[in-house]
Specification:
homodimer; 8-stranded mixed β-sheet; 12 helices; alpha/beta; 370 residues
């Protein structure tokens, strides 16, 4: 009767998981009406939204084959990485950096961009220069703060976005190689970025400078303006926070609605949330220099935001957009069909990559002084 | 042994539903690492995204209590309605119309708006006039095409959005009570809207006229501009398609990603898709006057689009936005945190309702001639 016992156990489990199983079974069995009934029952309570397991294909239209391959890719192997020591973090960081650096020669070649190392105010930086800078951009300069959850993207691994912006936009870019955990938690990254900012505004008219960056770099872009305001420094003429990590905690609707749908970050509960805590290092996750959504956006320069419909940070982006608009700031929002987190900067050959950076470049051209 | 047989059957079913069940069980059991493993396995195939069943609360921040109540409400009872006859459709349409009409007196009162019936070019219309029209809006006029999946919103039931726009924006609005299925499928609705448009541009400078509408009304707004272009008529000075049903078929990523998460439309497979087929009545769902996403947006007037992160039509909206931008059109996009389909127009007292209509009014003020 051993088999019988197991079977009974299986039945009990089935009963225990209740509506969720009914939903899964109904969906798998293909009975839409059963599913509709069970979902209606599961969604009868105020303030609680329940959705069944789902299987999606690639977006149907207006997505290039290059972007479709990116959108349809499996989860990255490290999405649930859980490094226990500084050494384990460094091994993971190093492994991912190599992947990023491997793409650089082809990108530089395609976009005709050169890269030089330098130090600004003691901070290691890269100067990224396109072969052709149009006349209106000759006196303009962009400051780049890279993404990577405050842990990834050290050194040259930070360069892809800077190269895309320099190449597609025709701008000279200073990319800040700020210090990061595990060795340097908050506020090292922000201190480095601000040291560079202070130096750059001494040597250039601030109205000709923009700050940009994606994900963590988007949050830092916003936090830099908050700090510049607080420290009475000159503000940039425009900013482009791409899908900013504006709430570093798991707060915001798309952390739930796009969980397991975004194939880049996948979930806050993997490496991402672990990096958040490693970076904050005990400082409140609601500190506006860490989660800029809690800052005061009044007086911000014109801002262009970018995200995708599957992005885990869709809410981070639209919450930022709305808060800027409520503060009376000029703020543009571009949301790309089907894209998960920051996929507009993965492949230099995807038309959507050129499109996203061209939108940002046009925005800078509109709002920066010549 | 009857019980045993059933238990074996339960086990077989369990095996049959495979990964989906594993996911549901893992999630219910609360083992995050188990879930992460099973999801990684389920997402190992290119072009296929699998997400487990999920339970979400209300959005955490920047959402008013009024909007939170709307976002957290159960599914509407009719989401899976399947009327089999014209009489059954009419009964459902009438029942829903009464709910809409019941709200009108309080809305009119609060916003100080009056409504008069009229006929324009033989089409039944309402003239919606706010008590105060600011000087810059005195010669401007808005044409409103209501939402409701081409079946809902007959007569006065169409008025809530027109009243909100007139009241919050300070504009005179003509709301078109176009003919609908089951009696009048495509192209009756579009023919009525175009008849009104032709008459209105005869009597007013087209640069002082905007067209707006939400959902079906958003699609009709876009389709009216397409038809005006094709028929060499004057174009409006600006348009505001709110979360437009720009692809009437189940094409677009958020039809899947926000299915069962949007608590207004819930799924295309309910009444919505049935209404699509009833309306098209055999005409291709890819006809640009039915699914305007397949039209040519070149030469379109400045356009402002509105949607929410949980909106089943998030992709309809952002696909439209991107296609407009690619055609070189001035196009603004506003996406509201946590909102399902068209929830920015449900409660006249929600701050987000005022915010959405004020954004649209400012956009019209910027682009319409005085």
């Amino acid at each position: 009767m051993r088999k019988f016992d197991h079977a009974i156990l299986a039945m009990s489990m089935t009963l225990a998981i209740g509506a969720t199983l009914a939903t899964a079974a109904a969906q798998t069995a293909g009975s839409y009406d059963e599913l509709a009934k069970s979902e209606a029952a599961a969604n009868a309570e105020n303030g609680k939204r329940v959705a069944p397991a789902k299987t999606m294909g690639n977006p149907a239209d207006e997505v290039s084959p290059e972007m479709e391959a990116i959108i349809g890719a499996p989860y990255p192997p490290h999405f649930n990485a859980d490094p226990k020591t500084a050494a384990e973090w460094k091994e993971l960081i190093e492994r991912r950096a190599k992947l990023s650096i491997a793409n650089l020669p082809a990108m530089k070649e395609k976009l005709g961009v050169k890269v030089e190392e330098t130090k600004i105010a003691g901070v290691h930086c890269f100067i990224v220069t396109p072969a052709k800078i149009p006349p209106e951009n000759r006196r303009r300069i962009l400051v780049h703060v890279h993404g990577g959850g405050y842990v990834f993207g050290p050194g040259e691994a930070a360069l892809p976005e800077a190269i895309l912006m320099a190449g597609f936009g025709g701008f000279k870019v200073i990319s800040v190689d700020y210090r990061m955990p595990p060795d340097f938690p908050y506020p090292a990254a922000m201190d480095d970025a601000m040291a560079v900012w202070k130096d750059v505004v001494k040597r250039h008219d601030h109205r000709r400078i923009a700050i940009f960056g994606t994900s963590t770099g988007g949050a830092m872009t916003l936090a830099m303006v908050l700090r510049a305001k607080d420290e009475k420094l000159a503000l940039p003429g425009a900013i482009a926070p791409g899908t900013p990590w504006s709430d570093i905690d798991k707060l915001g609707d798309s952390y739930a609605s796009n969980e397991w749908i975004d194939n880049v970050l996948v979930t806050w509960d993997g490496w991402l949330g672990r990096a958040a805590k490693l970076y904050a290092n005990g400082t409140s996750l609601r500190n506006p220099y860490i989660s800029p959504i809690y800052g005061n956006f009044k007086g911000f320069p014109p801002t262009i935001l970018t995200t995708g419909t599957r992005d885990l940070f869709l809410s981070n982006t639209v919450r930022t957009h709305r808060k800027l608009r409520r503060a009376g700031v000029i703020a543009d929002l571009n949301v790309y069909e089907g894209q998960s987190h920051a996929q507009y900067q993965v492949n230099v050959n995807a038309p959507e990559t050129k499109e996203a950076f061209t939108e940002i470049a046009k925005f800078f051209d509109k709002y920066l002084e010549e």
